[in-house]
Design a protein that fits this description.
single chain; 330 residues; alpha/beta; six-stranded parallel beta sheet; globular; Pantoate_ligase; ATP-binding; ligase activity; nucleotide-binding
């Protein structure tokens, strides 16, 4: 399909609108993860709607010493991929178009949730992110905006801003897209050398280890409810591969099988091993949090949670996460 490249909000506002407008916001350097967002936007907008992809490297999101200057800028390739994925428009404004008076004096503040995890590691990052998202929502005037779940804290904050400040737009989260080896797709992956990439696989490996432990625990929880007798319970636990737990049926009967601590421990083991690799993985944080406010959950927690990790490999900082649900069958 023909994709139109625009650089001003006036050009975008002049376009006739008949159906729903769906917007995918990016900083460029588009990859298959972005393509998935665009294809999802196309399905939501429908044949009569319009898909707009924004390409803007937002200077407010980069702190001192971060990679603003070397962040990849590949507009021609971005327009091509966006069009192949179903975009009608690529909106690529200059900094002066988004911030016509220079850096804005009035900004969106992310609040306490924006000071945790990514916010603690990158002070001011989420204030800059929310400010540009608010600006781009006003400039593009969408009915629906789509964001990747890989940036889970960002997605949670955007949803909170839209709700708290009464933005008239629907926010849709799209699951993380991974490469064949499990590494979450990111524009920063291109910075990794082959050796660094092997080390970086520990991020997804840790999350999958925690996810596997969680699945086993939830299976134990369900099986334990179904089998009241101690001997039968031990046999049932053994049947699903938990032979060590089954060896002490009394301990299993009195334990909390869905322990978040065990999930953290399983993920931490993978990360500790990666810290001894060459090159090493340097952990920033591993957290198991409530997605409503990104505070750590306790062992009595039930409901949706996010297991999140951030680390550096060489000079590249990467993040990843997986969603989990505790006590799903309760």
């Amino acid at each position: 399909m023909t994709t139109t490249l625009l650089s001003t909000a006036g050009e975008l506002h002049a376009r006739a609108r008949t159906g729903r407008r769906a917007v995918v916001m990016t900083m460029g350097a588009l990859h298959e993860g972005h393509a998935t967002l665009i294809r999802t936007a196309r399905a939501i907008a429908g044949p009569d709607g319009e898909v707009v992809v924004t390409v803007f490297v937002n200077p407010l999101q980069f702190g001192a010493g971060e990679d603003l200057d070397r962040y990849p800028r590949t507009l021609d390739a971005d327009v091509k991929l966006a069009g192949e994925s179903g975009a009608d428009v690529v909106f690529a404004p200059a900094v002066d178009e988004v911030y016509p008076g220079g850096e804005p004096q009035v900004r969106i503040t992310a609040g306490p949730m924006g000071e945790r995890l990514e916010g603690a590691s990158r002070p001011g990052h989420f204030d800059g992110m929310l400010t540009v998202v608010a600006k781009l929502l006003h400039l593009t005037r969408p009915d629906v905006a789509l964001y990747g779940q890989k940036d889970a804290q960002q997605l949670a904050l955007i949803r909170r801003m839209v709700r708290d400040l009464n933005f008239g737009v629907e926010i849709v989260g799209v699951p993380t897209v991974r490469e064949e080896d499990g590494l979450a797709l990111s524009s920063r992956n291109r910075y990794l050398s082959p050796a660094e990439r092997r080390t970086a696989l520990a991020l997804s490996g840790a999350l999958f280890a925690g996810q596997d432990r969680h699945a086993a625990q939830e299976a134990l929880r369900a099986r334990a409810r179904e089998v009241p007798a101690t001997r039968a319970r031990a046999e049932a636990l053994s049947a699903i591969g938990e032979s060590r737990a089954a060896a002490d049926a009394h301990a299993v009967a009195t334990a909390v099988p869905g322990s978040p601590a065990a999930v953290r421990a399983a993920a931490r083991q993978v990360l500790d091993e990666a810290a001894r690799l060459d090159p090493p993985l340097v952990l920033d944080y591993l957290a198991l949090v409530d997605p409503s406010d990104f505070t750590e959950i306790g062992d009595d927690f039930t409901g949706e949670a996010v297991l999140a990790v951030a680390a550096r490999v060489g000079t590249t900082r990467l993040i990843d996460n997986v969603p989990l649900t505790f006590g799903a069958a309760s």
